[in-house]
Design goal:
The chain is α/β, with parallel strands linked by helices. The chain has five domains: about 1-70, no CATH class; about 80-115 and about 125-140 and about 150-305, Spore Coat Polysaccharide Biosynthesis Protein SpsA, Chain A, CATH 3.90.550.10; about 310-440, no CATH class; about 455-780, no CATH class; about 800-833. It has 32 helices and eleven strands. The strands form two sheets. A seven-stranded mixed β-sheet has the order 7-6-5-8-10-9-11. It starts with 8 loop residues before the first helix and ends in a 5-residue tail after the last helix.
């Protein structure tokens, strides 16, 4: 900083060899030096030089190497008033500058904050810069000119780096973003309740008037990939307010289509974000900047956020990699198939050989080959390959079921899968993991989507196990009840087979549909208890934990039971904790449907009574009609089963009660503990302990909100009451593997809320350990499910099917029986009895 008088400024700047610009004009009428000299800043691409004059900013226009001097009002630094900088990127917006500044002036004049306007212009070829320079109004307007750099995101960052404000507002210059909404965007920041506020088109109250239906659909579709990385409704919004330090702290390089998406996805820890509705109107002047280049930048930004480094592969190298893996995979598949080698060996060998050879050849020809050939990158490549291998195995199994193994479509389709597999794995191995691991929302959604797709792909590819065949036989003789179970599982199988024919897929479709219902209600329940971030974690748990994965791939009475249990918990929480009287009706419906699925759900009745007795604010329900109406609804839905039992001497009720009670003595508590460990995994069991302890300590704090205490109590009552019954039963009788599975649904919200909680204060080590355990646990589970489904469908090299196992051989046995029947019919002249 050089202390000078106003008259010497031109000489000093002109004589400074390191200063790249010269002063075109300096009005001496503006130069006067009060006692508290202000700063005179010169902004240039390489830094800034400061000297003391009054109320001036100097900005170079780089293309003409000149300085723009704009008088401005002081920003009141050090006062209680927050300072705001409004950043507006421009490119050929000449006609919009004047009306935009007029509307901004009207808005800012009513605001208690001190504001400045920063235009960042990228190589405008019209008179945009002249229009900004010509402004004579009261607003402090500043101009940053960029001729050697382009990009919307980097333009916003350039404005943020020179901004004086503590708070930043980012908006477009085309008048599509209403300046009148700026106070609403700033208020949550001024209150301190949020770190970022988005002007959203897609929350209630937001709108896009004049848009045709096709454009609305295209806009919504474009936001879907971005919502992998954030939960906001309008992640591509270019109109938002944010704290300056939050924008400048973005971890990743600012590039791509939207800086707002970059901030939402890359901020660690995540910002407290909210959305306010705005009306987005189309521009009336100027031309839209949307083009193929912008779309490409958006796709590259999404890939970078997902950990894929597109700079690692040029177009030519991508074609080389794709060509190698496709041709080699196809040729190997064809060659090995002709050797009468089993299909599992054929498809696995050709896939892994082709993709790995393509990886090595592409990596060794890269300028940074050491980066790709290190052990860490190679292992990342193999992990992604394995995930694609399971998908390809499911596709091959489907094709073989429809065509013969020798059909040319099988190797062609299989080889086609190797192209995205090898390319994606290569890009991920190129070093994007460090970014990918911070985008938990993307990881979580990919886990959920992958497990859904995997189950759908394999749903009809493996034989019915004996239990499924047993329940399929139920569906061939529909009744209101059966010896060991109510009729819901039979109804689901009957419906699936009547819609899609007598196939394994049709038999299991009801199980998969029930899982979707379960996931929906678990998500809603967790969101009501702990918010939308925890709700996403709950989806991961219900997708990945062994019991809940299993009930979607094998049809048993547990499939509808779990769905009804989840629905009942959701409505019971809504009634008991949130005080919604109408929710009792939903609780009654799902309790009744649950009883028609499996009698175990009756254990929720004592759990509800216990909660109402303990929770003082819930005791009034004993005097209200809604709980009794819910019980009547449940009994009405269950009444066909009651009638059937009455007609058959109560045989099913006796089988599930007296028969089990009078069974031989068997101390099975250790087996019960082992089954819980298997259903939840050790990490899941540790998560229950950590979450319960954490929320108990928080709930007993005098300052803790009542809702936290009631959520914790609701969880314990709904889970521990049924668990107590099973533990007591295990002291003298045998328990089954699946019995406790549904009751852990009550704990999923607590587990989800702690899934990425690192802990603080007392007990910090356990939550931190849990956070480190979940990633490998989820990875092992997902890979394990893929191996299991692949093994059941196509087999695995070196792992023969166990002799005498009840899981396999049904189709072969049926075929041999049919052959025997036909042979006897020919020999005897009539079918055998």
């Amino acid at each position: 900083m050089l202390p000078v008088c106003g008259d010497s400024i031109p000489e000093i700047l002109g004589g400074c060899s390191s200063f790249p610009c010269h002063l075109l004009s300096l009005s001496r009428s503006f130069l006067h030096l009060p006692d508290d000299h202000s700063r005179f800043r010169v902004f240039n691409p390489t830094g800034s030089i400061g000297c003391r004059v009054h109320h001036f900013f100097i900005f170079p226009c780089y293309s003409q190497c000149r300085i723009r001097i704009v008088p401005r009002s002081p920003m009141q630094r050090g006062s209680a008033t927050m300072n705001v900088s409004i950043i507006i990127p421009t490119r050929n917006e000449q006609e919009n500058i004047a009306p935009l500044l007029d509307r901004l002036g009207n808005t800012v004049s009513k605001s208690p904050t001190s504001c400045e306007i920063i235009f960042v212009d990228d190589s405008s070829t019209d008179e945009t810069r002249s229009a900004i320079n010509a402004y004579q109004g009261p607003l402090p307007v500043r101009l940053v000119c960029r001729d050697n750099e382009t990009g919307l995101a980097s333009a916003v960052c350039a404005g943020a780096h020179v901004a004086e404000g503590d708070l930043l507002v980012v908006m477009d210059a085309d008048l599509s973003h209403p300046p009148e909404a700026i106070p609403a965007l700033l208020q949550p920041l001024l209150d301190g309740s949020h770190d970022m506020v988005i002007g959203s088109r897609y929350v209630q109250g937001g709108s896009t008037p004049g848009w045709p239906a096709l454009r609305r659909a295209a806009s919504r579709l474009a936001t879907l990939p971005a919502r992998l990385f954030t939960a906001v409704h309008d992640p591509l919004a270019g109109f938002f307010a944010i704290r300056k330090e939050s924008l400048l702290a973005v971890r990743q390089p600012a590039g791509g289509f939207k800086i707002g998406l970059q901030i939402l996805a890359a901020s660690d820890p995540p910002l407290r974000t909210t959305e306010v509705p705005v009306t987005f109107v189309d521009r009336n002047r100027g031309a839209s900047k949307m083009n193929a280049g912008v779309i490409g930048a958006y796709l590259r930004q999404l890939a970078a956020l997902g950990g894929l480094d597109f700079h690692a592969l040029s177009a030519g190298r991508t074609l080389l990699l794709a060509g190698i893996v496709f041709v080699l995979d196809f040729l190997l598949f064809q060659h090995l198939s002709g050797k009468r080698i089993t299909i599992d060996i054929v498809h696995i060998t050709s896939f892994l050989a082709a993709c790995n050879l393509g990886y090595v050849l592409t990596a060794t020809t890269s300028a940074t080959s050491a980066r790709y050939l290190c052990a860490r990158s190679f292992l990342r490549f193999q992990f992604v390959l394995i995930l694609f291998l399971f998908v390809r195995g499911g596709l091959v199994a489907l094709l073989i079921a429809r065509f013969s193994e020798s059909a040319s479509i099988v190797p062609l389709a299989a080889a086609a899968i190797s192209i995205p597999a090898a390319t994606t794995a290569y890009l991920f191995a190129a070093g994007g993991e460090s970014r990918f691991q911070h985008n938990w929302r993307a990881v979580a959604l990919l886990i959920v989507l992958y497990t859904i797709f995997l189950r759908l792909l394999y749903l009809g590819s493996y034989e019915l196990i004996q239990e499924e065949a047993y329940y399929w036989n139920y569906s061939q003789h529909l009744a209101m009840g059966y010896l060991d179970h109510p009729p819901m599982v039979a109804l689901l199988i009957w419906l699936g087979t009547h819609l899609f024919g007598p196939t394994e897929f049709a038999v299991r479709l009801g199980a998969f549909s029930c899982w979707l219902v379960t996931a929906f209600f678990v998500h809603r329940l967790t969101a009501a208890m702990f918010g939308k971030h925890a709700a996403l974690n709950a989806l991961v748990l219900v997708a990945a934990l062994p019991f809940y994965f299993g009930v979607a791939v094998v049809i048993t009475p547990d499939s509808p039971l779990v769905a009804c249990w989840a629905g009942a918990l959701y409505y019971l929480h809504k009634a008991l904790v949130q005080g919604n009287a109408r929710a009792w009706l939903g609780a009654g419906v799902f309790l009744g449907l649950g009883l028609a699925s499996k009698y175990t759900i009756a254990l929720l009745g004592p759990a509800v009574l216990l909660f109402m007795l303990i929770d003082r604010s819930s005791r009034h329900w004993f005097r209200r009609p809604q709980p009794y109406l819910a019980a009547l609804i449940a009994v009405a839905l269950f009444s066909p089963v009651i009638l059937w039992n009455y007609q058959h001497g109560w045989v099913s009720f006796l089988f599930q009660s007296q028969h089990r009670i009078l069974d031989v003595f068997h101390f099975s508590t250790p087996e019960l503990a082992a089954t819980i460990l298997l259903l939840l995994t050790p990490t899941g069991l540790l998560a229950i302990w950590v979450a319960t302890r954490r929320y108990f300590l928080e709930a007993i704090e005098p300052s803790a909100p009542l809702a936290l205490h009631r959520n914790w109590l609701f969880t314990l009552c709904m889970a521990l009451t049924p668990l107590t019954v099973f533990v007591a039963f295990s002291l003298s009788k045998e328990v089954k593997l699946n019995w406790t599975g549904p009751l852990w649904l009550a704990f999923l919200p607590l587990m989800a809320a702690s899934l990425r909680h690192h802990g603080n204060g007392t007990g910090r080590k356990l939550p931190a350990l849990l956070s480190r355990l979940w990633p490998p646990t989820l990875a092992i589970l997902i890979v394990g499910y893929g191996f299991t489904l692949h093994y059941f469908s196509l087999g695995l090299p070196g792992i023969p099917f166990a002799a005498g196992t009840f899981l396999f051989g049904g189709s072969d046995l049926a075929g041999k029986i049919e052959q025997t029947v036909r042979r006897l019919e020919v020999g005897r002249g009539r079918p055998p009895v």
